[in-house]
Amino acid sequence: MKKELGIFILLIVLCVIVSVVNPNFLLVNNLQNLARQIGAFGIFSIGLGLVIITGGIELSVGSMMALLGVLMSMMLTEHGYGVVLTVIASIGLAMALGLGHGLLITRLNMQPFIVTLCGLLFYRGLARFITNDETKGFGAVGFDSLRFLANGNLFGIPMPFVLLILIAAITWVVLHRSVYGRYLFATGRNSEAARYAGIDTNRIITVTYVISGALTAISGIIFAFYTNSVSPANHGNAYELYGIAAAVLGGCSLRGGEGSVVGILIGTALLQVLRNLVNLLGIPSSLDFAVMGAVILIGVMADQIFTERRNRRQVALMRELSAREAKS
Amino acid sequence: MEGVSKRFPGVVALDNVSLSVGAGEIVALIGENGAGKSTLMKILGGAIARDGGTVKIDGQAAEIRSPREASALGIEFIHQELSVLDNLDIAANIFLHREPTTGGFLKLIDRKRIYREADALLRKLGLDLSSRTPLVQLSIAQQQLVEIARALGAGARIIIMDEPTSSLTLTETRRLLELIKDLKSQNVSIIYISHRMHEVQEIADRAVVLRDGKNAGELQRNEISHERMVRMMVGRDLKDFFKGAAAGNGSKADRDGFVVKRLRTLRYPNHTITFNVAPGEVLGFAGLVGAGRSEVARAIFGVEEALETDVWLDGKDLRITEPQDAIGHGIYLVPEDRRLNGLIVDFNVRENITLPNLDSYSSAKIINFAKESKVALEAIKAINIKTPTPEMRAANLSGGNQQKVVLAKWLTFRPRVLIFDEPTRGIDVGAKAEIYELIRNLAAKGVSVIVISSEMEEVLGISDRIAVMHEGRLTGILNRPQFSEEAVMRLATGTEG
After folding, report:
1. How far is CA B194 from the centre of its chain?
2. H-type helices in B97-158, by residue range?
3. Do B359 and A179 touch (CB under 8 A)?
């Protein structure tokens, strides 16, 4: 928990600064909007974070959402599939794609970066091809349940945020309290040693890509109905980078074996607050990527310094122990 | 080097150690594993800093803070593990980090010059190869010569060789020893670290013996004999070390227990290995480095694919293709490389101990932390792991305690077969004795134990029987009455059997 504290403080400080400079930040409308964004981005970021904990990476998230978006539109508006069937098909497809990534990575020993980079290119191209590069939408009426999922509120709290909290709670238990979670950390940190301990590391990794696929699909549904139109060339562009940034900010190490659900949540929130901040503080929007880059760099740097310090303390403790033993 | 000391967390690695080398002298530095030889040489080579003492070269006090500074003083280190880059060619390796350049500020590598000079160096060493040959195409022995060429090319006056013959064949070893004598005649000083007594006997002008991080004595050329060296290295307490070890008499095989038949490893596909370990028996596995012992262990445990295996436990035919299969049958491996395979060093002690058996401390796949902590704490107490808390990162523990964590992992089960691969490598003497005791205790409880060890004293002291391997072949199995260093060496070098 200590690890997330630093970045949490950064988040709070930023929020305080923005609300002092521009009190509009605290308007219910703005906060709701912010929470909706955090929800939509947070869900797939958790999946991506899990993949990063295995020591892998998932770059195809944005393209997958574009592909799912246009397929959903086609299923619902052109083929008249029901909402339930469409949702199941979308999540199922994303899980199948995740399974494909996982199998290519574990069975053929391919590098996650390359497998998912190819996914990034392939799904985007596929989305554009099947739509003839035309934007697909969901019209003005119908599909109320899905619209509610993206745009509705529950007791004033945006639905995507509610969903995020629910999913985060489940993943928290899975990651930090379950056997699978421990295996995931072990595999990500040292897959050789994990294998020597009898862990089926291939299965752990594959399952993680499948979970990431499922969470991407849920985020994908929200984004599709939030924008209400899916442009196959642009929808979800670079979203994987938001997810990676959130995970890394939240303490996930790209070397694997490190990270937490709470960290990813705070990381996502921080990124969205930053986007909001650029808006509210009148910073030229052309600068928003630069601002994000700088804050991520500072956050990760601070985290690294904390980690070093904690380890030095432990080493000092061991020294003390051996000195005491030498005396007795 | 005078009065050099070095402390690591948990161990005093060097205590007031002195060593001198004359110009053109070959000094053998000997001692058991963990006696401090490597640490002393790393200090001389600038890889680690000393805590006390002085280093003088030609009477001048020298501060060696990095390998580069050592190199500038004419000190070159040839490591036990080759440190050549096999993605480059010979010349690039020889001139690595001191490439002659041309083209002014462009700093292009003077290719003509490095190939010319590298070729000259290779000829000097009697290596009949073009310096354009990529390193991957070279044998281990040839790669080692490239390292020596690099040292000479850098103008070495003192060359430190750490176990240079450990992965060489006999003929290659002969050639290397000749080369070392040759270097001596060119006034190069050699510090020669080796466990191979006959090599020391052959080439050393003087032997300096270290024991437990202290000077244990020195032998002049005419005093060097196998026996005297061993006595100095081991000291008095060798017998205490293995008290109770001789419990077995080598004929416990009333039951076959654990049987391995017709095992063929990927590395040595032409040799089949067959042996058995009775319950309560300790079977030692001796042999030179690279004899294929670790491959056998890994194949049994299922981490490495075997071409063929037939493994039986108490009359039951087992199928093992993955470590989880072996673990399910009560067969465990304490691997050779603790930090890479035995532990997750960034995990804490508790997480490491409970990792393979997590399901037993969880309900519905959710870990019961109270139960887990209790098991970890019990394991820590049971085998006396020295850690202030179970939450300590394993990386911060001393080698001996890390090894105990690896073992504790398996003791949370009920082991039936335990395979130790070099169980005491890099472990200080006190912890070694504890590990031996643990191994004996396991055997006393009826576990079939296999101990792979390259330390002669260890394998002779702990085993009820010794299987000896040579280049992938099981050359013989000795019973206790037949135990002797010579008998093991004969089988290990393939001169018999």
Report:
1. 12
2. 111-124, 140-153
3. yes
Tens of pLDDT along A268-281? Answer: 999 999 988 888 88
A327 burial type by CB count under 10 A (0-12 exposed, 13-18 middle, 19+ buried): exposed
Q: DSSP letter for B106, please.
A: G
Note the Cα A217 to chain centre separation in Å: 12
Cα torsion angle, A313, A315, A321, A327, sign: negative
Architecture of domain B2-236: 3-Layer(aba) Sandwich (3.40)
Q: Does B393 touch chain A (CB under 8 A)?
A: yes
Task: Count CB-CB contacts under 10 A for residue B109.
Answer: 15
Task: Tell me whether the CATH fold assigned to B2-236 matches the one assigned to B240-492.
Answer: yes
Structure tokens at B49: 């800093």
CB contact under 8 A, A315 and B323: no
For chain A, the straight-line distance linking the first and the last C-alpha, in angstroms and rounded, comes to 36
pLDDT by 10s per residue, chain A, length 328: 567 888 898 899 989 999 999 999 999 999 999 999 999 999 999 999 999 999 999 999 999 999 999 999 999 988 888 899 999 999 999 999 999 999 999 999 999 999 999 999 999 999 999 999 999 988 888 888 898 988 888 998 999 999 999 999 999 999 999 999 999 999 999 998 999 999 999 999 999 999 999 999 999 999 999 999 999 999 999 899 999 999 998 888 888 898 999 999 999 999 999 988 888 888 888 888 888 888 888 878 877 787 788 778 877 887 777 777 666 6
At A158, which helix (H) or strand (E)? strand A157-158
Q: Is A12 on the interface with B (CB under 8 A)?
A: no
Domain A2-327 has CATH 3.40.50: no
B479 in A contact zone (CB under 8 Å) = no
Q: Give the pair of three-digit tokens for residue A14.
A: 């930023």
CB atoms A180 and B365 under 8 Å: yes
Residue type, B336: E
Give the other-Cβ count within 10 Å of B461's Cβ.
19
Which of B421, B432, B354 has its CA nearest to residue B399? B432
Q: Does A169 touch chain B (CB under 8 A)?
A: no
Interface of A with B in 22-81 (CB under 8 A): none
Distance CA B1, CA B55 (A): 4
Asked if residues B209 and B232 have their Cβ atoms less than 8 Å apart, the reply is: yes
Touching check for A2 and chain B: CB below 8 Å? no
Q: Amino acid letter at A19?
A: S
CA–CA dist A119, A117 (Å, integer): 5
Phi, then psi, of B335 in degrees rounded to 5 = -75, 165
By the CB < 8 Å criterion, does A203 face chain B? Answer: no
Enumerate the β-bridge partners of residue B60: B57
Q: In Å, how far is B116's CA from the nearest CA of chain A?
A: 40
CATH of B240-492, one of 3.40.50.300, 3.40.50.11060, 3.30.450.20, 3.40.50.1000: 3.40.50.300
Burial A269-286 (b: 16+ CB within 10 A, else e): bbbbbbbbbbbbeeeeee
Q: Report the interhelical angle of A201-227 vs A61-73 (nearest 10°).
A: 50
Cβ contact A52:A212 at 8 Å: no
ipTM at complex level: 0.81
pLDDT tens readout for residues A139-148: 888 888 898 9
Domain ranges of chain A: 2-327
CA-closest candidate to residue A102, choices A228, A256, A205, A220: A205
B388 at interface of A, judged by CB pairs closer than 8 A? yes
Q: What is the helix (H) or strand (E) element at residue B207, kind and residue range?
A: strand B206-211
Domain ranges of chain B: 2-236, 240-492
Residues in A closer than 8 angstroms to B409, CB to CB, are: 197
Determine whether the interchain pair B366/A257 forms a contact, defined as Cβ–Cβ distance below 8 Å.
no
